[in-house]
Amino acid sequence: MLSEYLALLIIVLLFSTLCASKKLVVHVQIVARHGDRTPYITFPTDPYLEIWEEKGGLGVTTEEGNRRMFRVGRDFHDLYPNLFTDRLNSFETVSVTSDLPRTVESGKLIVAGVYNMSNFTNIKVTTLKPNALKANNGECPAFDMANEAVKISPVYKDKIESFNGLISYLKTPTGMIDMDYEALSDFADVMLVAKQNNLTLPEYVTPEIHDQLQTSTRIKFETLSETEFERQVSTGVILNMIRNAFNGKVSRKQLKRGNSFISYVTHDWILIGLIRHITGRLMPTPGYGDAIVFELSRDTTNDEWFVALKYKPGSSSTVQNLKLCGKSNFCSFNQFLNKLSGKTITLSEYVNLCTVM
């Protein structure tokens, strides 16, 4: 009888211990792709030119893109309600963007969505100068040189040259007589955006041709994060800011609201490079509003800190776990810091790395 009582007591104590152990999410940072946009180029025989003009021009977010990014903000409010107060608080929620209008607007709309604000025009975001959230913008010559070297490497040269036949086929109907691989990728973007807007594709863009076009874009994204140098230049500044914000939270042990949510709004290939930089894995091309989620939590029973890696599609309100440490989606905080060792750079280091000596 005594042995049965002791066994029951042990079970109760173990259950109480497990119940007492609780991870409290105290800080979240996301790296998100901007909202739906129009194409960033046109071509001589573009049948959609008037449509792009009606939507505001080239490379700008659309009404659907605005609605999506607002929903992204609402989703994160609902996922982490304990992080937010009811009114806009610039100390509580911060948005950092590249300097392009589509990312700036998307960053404002995420914040507007968090606080359910109908007017987002006066919301302030931080834009990085130089634009370290878009290293292929022509401001980083060293990055451009590294990317060109990748494209002529044996690994990618054959892949790129395999599109020569497609390029020749498209030159006449598109009017892009000087089309090369870069122009092919630009044309692929126009066709993808047209399809996303339920527009009828030109007859010469069959489903098979469209698939080839998107494959060309995918390969272009791969070349932008193929080398360690490219990954460090394109994502090292973001990772440094993420690490510093987490360090500040852990060192001060701030469990109250404040400095709770930071969004970095950037571009699809940056998300690909970031996941490749910290996990070594290639991810599918991100959709509009997709976000990589970094969660900082504290175990309230032993004061240990953890970082979890997740992914939230822009088309869904749910999050998915991503492997961060082995088969797990989370690491201890020290494991996370070790994982970032040698992968982060400051903004001044970015400037130095971009300089061609």
Structure at a glance:
The protein has helices spanning 2-20, 49-54, 63-79, 101-114, 141-151, 154-161, 164-174, 181-196, 207-223, 228-252, 268-279, 333-340, 347-354, and strands at 23-33, 93-97, 126-127, 261-266, 291-299, 305-312, 320-321, 330-332.
Whole-number mean pLDDT: 91
Query: What is the strand content?
Result: 5-15%
Largest sheet: 8 strands, mixed
Cα end-to-end separation: 82 Å
According to DSSP, the number of beta strands is 8
Radius of gyration: 23 Å
| Helical fraction | 40-55%
Order of helices and strands: HEHHEHEHHHHHHEHEEEEHH
Topology:
Elements: H1 2-20, E1 23-33, H2 49-54, H3 63-79, E2 93-97, H4 101-114, E3 126-127, H5 141-151, H6 154-161, H7 164-174, H8 181-196, H9 207-223, H10 228-252, E4 261-266, H11 268-279, E5 291-299, E6 305-312, E7 320-321, E8 330-332, H12 333-340, H13 347-354
Parallel strand pairs: 1-4, 2-3, 2-4
Antiparallel strand pairs: 1-5, 5-6, 6-7, 6-8
Task: Explain how this protein is built.
This protein has 357 residues and is of the alpha/beta class. 48% of the residues lie in helices and 13% in strands. Strands 1, 2, 3, 4, 5, 6, 7 and 8 form an eight-stranded mixed β-sheet that branches. α3 packs across α4, α8 crosses α9 and α10 packs across α11.
